[in-house]
Amino acid sequence: KSAGITSGNISQNQLVVNGLEDIANEVYYANDKTAPDRKAEEAAELFALMESLCDSYGYVSKSMLYDNLLLPDIEIDKLLRIFKLQLREIYKYAPPTKEEMQLWSLKDRKYIYKRKEKE
Question: What is the rounded distance in angstroms from the CA atom of residue 17 to the CA atom of residue 15?
Fold first, then answer.
């Protein structure tokens, strides 16, 4: 049995970003209404950085984001969670293949973001 959407299992920003603003206003009626706009600005920086890193290196790791984005690591993780659906449209988040590990000189199989192949 599901408890439904509550403030404990989903964020206001995630609801707004995914087009569920009415539900966000119902669940988070007392919250700051400008928060989703701020997250959208931070996400624009995140997406621009990911695009740049992908052009330069061919992939993006979380540690690269932590090092290059001027936000606390926990805020970067929140952005990645909030904008997960949008990221999935552009990037594949998976461990590197053996060939990719050799190509990019990766030392471990930690998950990375790679641009999806055009179909």
Answer: 6
Tens of pLDDT, residue by residue over 24-57, are 777 666 566 666 677 888 889 999 999 999 999 9
pTM listed for this prediction? 0.72
By three-state DSSP, how is residue 108 classified? Answer: coil
Q: Are 40 and 89 in contact (CB under 8 A)?
A: no
Q: What is the DSSP string of 48-66?
A: HHHHHHHHHHS-B-HHHHH
Residue ranges in 1-119 assigned as alpha helix (H): 12-17, 21-27, 35-57, 62-68, 73-82, 84-90, 98-104
Helix (H) or strand (E) holding 109: none
